[in-house]
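Good morning N.,

You mentioned wanting to compare the apo and holo forms, so I went ahead and generated the holo version with NAP. This is what I fed in:
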Amino acid sequence: MKETVSTTNLFDLRRKIALIPGASRGIGEEIANLLAEQGAHVIVSSRKLEDCESVARGIREAGGSAEAYPCHVGRLDDIKGVFQHIRSIHGRLDILVSNAAANPYFGHILDTGLSSFEKTVEVNLRGYFFMSVEAGKLMREHGGGAIVSTASVNALQPGDKQGIYSITKAAVVNMTRAFAKE
Ligand SMILES: NC(=O)c1ccc[n+]([C@@H]2O[C@H](COP(=O)([O-])OP(=O)(O)OC[C@H]3O[C@@H](n4cnc5c(N)ncnc54)[C@H](OP(=O)(O)O)[C@@H]3O)[C@@H](O)[C@H]2O)c1
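and this is what came out, ligand included:
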């Protein structure tokens, strides 16, 4: 008998593969739990494999499907690595939720140091960008997918003493539109 996907549950994610950078704690962990509850196989990712293993284990113990894979989104080699893994093990990606972010500097915008600037841009901008590029290429091969990027209310109104972070979050909003457009 031909299997049909229920149309009554619009959030049915069975058979979907989801990658979530920044899922080892906080908002990302909750996103991972939620996608797994809806049936997706979740790849829990962040810099620290042990923390990701713990979240993935929790999902499996709750009856879901999950694995852990380490990736520093500020490192292009790490991004290539996680996508090579996904290609070889799963052959496809349906959902990317870019959630990992850095906010290393709280202070007056005129005192922003180069290393804080570079760290924030490296993770929040370059990381999100190349994650989306690699995800888009893989999704295109299999008829599409969904890319969700966590921005912030600071994208719309700069947070007090959070200048460079707010700037990168505003860029994430435009980046999401740019990827959607093309
Ligand atoms: N919390 C808020 O009030 C708030 C408000 C607005 C927007 N946001 C946004 O929501 C998202 C999640 O925030 P959160 O508060 O839940 O963050 P969080 O608790 O600080 O967690 C950050 C997550 O990102 C990972 N991460 C950090 N740097 C990384 C890197 N270079 N490469 C890969 N993973 C990295 C961390 O794991 P590792 O340390 O293991 O890498 C962790 O899993 C962020 O995009 C943030 O900007 C948060």
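The chain has a mean pLDDT of 96.

Happy to go through it together on a call whenever suits you.

Best,
F.
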